[in-house]
Amino acid sequence: MKNLWLFIAAIVIISCKPEKEIDYSLISGKIENTDAEKITIYSQFDTSQKTEINIAADGTFSDTLKMNTDFYLFREGRNMTVLYAPNGSDVNITYNAKEKDSTITFKGNTTAINNYLIEKNRLSKDLISDNKTLYSKEEAAFKEELLAAKSAKENLLVKTDAIPEDFKTKEEKDINYEYLATLNNYPSYHGYYVGNRDFKASENFLDELKNVEIENESDFLYSTYYRSIVGSKLRDKANDLVEKDSTLSRDIAYLKAISELKNQTIKNKLLLEDALYGITYTDNLEEYYAIFSENSTNEKNNEKIAADYKKLKSLAKGNPSPQFTDYENNAGGTKSLSDLKGKYVYIDVWATWCGPCIAEIPSLKKIEKEFHDKNIQFLSISIDEEKDHDKWKKMIVDRELGGMQLMADNNWESQFIEDYMIKGIPRFILLDPQGNIVTANAPRPSNEKLVTLLNELDI
């Protein structure tokens, strides 16, 4: 009898034990007519978090997602899809890569929401003009188009019965934030597209944004458009700080504006979001890191940025440059950085698909011509993928690129690129004749500060 009671007690204990919370989601599917070899899935709010899934020969794929987010960006080739897959989801997605929008289908326990998101995206494509057409419109016509799209999306949300009410509530706010965020972009975008950089919107045009409170944690964690508005308001605060103190750099001012927030969740996320890239490019590393460290309370974030800070310290002026070996030389053979000792080296990291990189080419040619008889080597390193090798060779000829043209051995993941913590291009680096760093973030060719710097070095 005693053993029986012990057995029953054990059953009770086991049955009362809470189930472990599921901390992952499952994704699978099939993509027809794709040329891609893999799928890349990003966390929508932090694209530094990503996972890559191989696509089998028959187009099928499957994997587990563990990024602690509800929304993902699903990318296959040039196709991009917003995917709702919170922990506990089992999502199956299929489509024809040549006509994704008309063939995409979902199965699983989030099907209704993902179908809604697809329809919402279709409405945007059908009802909103391309950026140039939209933002070139006068204020009244611009707002009329936005309001029509907003109304259509609200109607779609109302008539979609299969999605939970709490999701509908969040979506209702997100649709409004999308409208407000697009409205907020109008002054700068309109000025750009109509060629009037001094354009200012009419006095009351942005009144609807005045009462948007920037520390709503729930909205911040759900809506990318709300985040956009928050970022814009913080940049306005940063500009005010710079106006009051002209010695303050804009990146430091923006970090200070974030630090004034009272909601620690929002503050931590914005500090990390800025630091992941900002700390790499700041000219005020010590001050930047000090402000981040004083205000961030997330240990995981702090460890990540501390590691970046330590690495960036090794890229300070006077330190030996990271090296590369045997990069393909367009002129033939290979080249290593050590081969260039004895000259200053101005490095341009670029790619054929990078618009801002290509925009720098005329200025770079001008600088090369001005300093052609000086002790400096102009070196361009492409981080194009191997599949674009011929495109790289062709662009060198078509654009009559000068200097030394090399191709990195593994695009973004080349050791030299990772050692310099290059997270965006174009990126420019200047080394001295001993192979030491003059600056790991040199001015662009289009920036007059570059000529000043080179002249000061008496090259």
Short description:
With 459 residues, this protein is an alpha+beta fold. Helices cover 46% and strands 18% of the residues. It has helices spanning 2-16, 100-103, 111-127, 131-136, 139-159, 165-193, 217-222, 224-244, 250-259, 264-281, 285-295, 299-313, 355-359, 361-370, 389-398, 415-419, 449-456; strands spanning 25-32, 38-43, 46-54, 60-65, 71-76, 79-84, 90-96, 105-108, 327-329, 334-335, 344-350, 376-382, 404-407, 427-431, 437-439.
Q: In whole angstroms, how far apart are the ends? A: 95 Å
Strand content: 15-25%
Main beta sheet, described? 7 strands, mixed
Please tally the helical runs, counting DSSP H or I stretches of 4 or more residues. 17
Give the neighbour order of strands across the main sheet: 10-9-13-12-11-14-15
Unreliable sequence segments:
10-15
Structural class: alpha+beta
What portion of residues is helical? 40-55%
Structural notes for this entry:
By secondary structure, the chain is an alpha+beta fold. It folds into three domains: 25-119, Sandwich (Immunoglobulin-like); 134-313, no CATH class; 327-456, Glutaredoxin (3-Layer(aba) Sandwich), CATH 3.40.30. It is 46% helix and 18% strand. It has 17 helices and 15 strands. It has helices at 2-16, 100-103, 111-127, 131-136, 139-159, 165-193, 217-222, 224-244, 250-259, 264-281, 285-295, 299-313, 355-359, 361-370, 389-398, 415-419, 449-456, and strands at residues 25-32, 38-43, 46-54, 60-65, 71-76, 79-84, 90-96, 105-108, 327-329, 334-335, 344-350, 376-382, 404-407, 427-431, 437-439. Strands 10-9-13-12-11-14-15 form a seven-stranded mixed beta sheet. The protein has a four-stranded mixed beta sheet with strand order 4-1-7-8. Strands 3-2-5-6 form a four-stranded antiparallel beta sheet. Strand 5 (71-76) and strand 6 (79-84) form a beta hairpin. The longest helix is centred in the middle third of the chain and has 29 residues, at 165-193. The protein is globular. The protein starts with a helix and ends with a helix.
